[in-house]
Design a protein that fits this description.
Layout: H1 3-29, H2 31-51, E1 68-69, E2 74-75, H3 76-96, H4 99-114
Antiparallel strand pairs: 1-2
Length: 117
């Protein structure tokens, strides 16, 4: 594991897991919407990064695994960061339409998590 992959996982995994625990059924029922809404911007950002020649920022090779995304030749960590950010944004947006329902779900989840075995 590389430094960047670990940091991305530590940062994003708990947030995505919480979203799935609260509204996975909602997200799965809207899979066509979120799949396109995540993949299209991720592809666009990867393309812009590849065409931009890494002028704005660059992944430090000391913390990178060195794997490149095929065709675009951008670091895998960069593509993963775009994907994770877009996933968080899209899932939050979709779940935000169900706020009244989610409040009860969050309360139930909180109660379940606080129970002691």
């Amino acid at each position: 594991m590389t430094g960047y992959l670990v940091f991305i996982g530590v940062w994003a995994a708990p947030l995505i897991l919480i979203q799935w625990m609260i509204g996975l059924d909602i997200l799965l029922s809207r899979w066509k919407v979120w799949l396109l809404a995540i993949l299209l911007p991720t592809g666009y950002l990867c393309l812009v990064y590849a065409l931009g020649g890494r002028a704005a920022w660059q992944v430090n090779n000391a913390h990178s695994g060195g794997a490149l995304l095929p065709l675009l030749n951008i670091p895998l960590e960069e593509a993963l960061l775009y994907f994770v950010c877009n996933t968080l944004i899209v899932q939050t947006f979709i779940l935000s339409f169900y706020v009244p329902n989610l409040r009860a779900r969050i309360a139930n989840l909180w109660t379940t998590l606080r129970r002691r075995p």
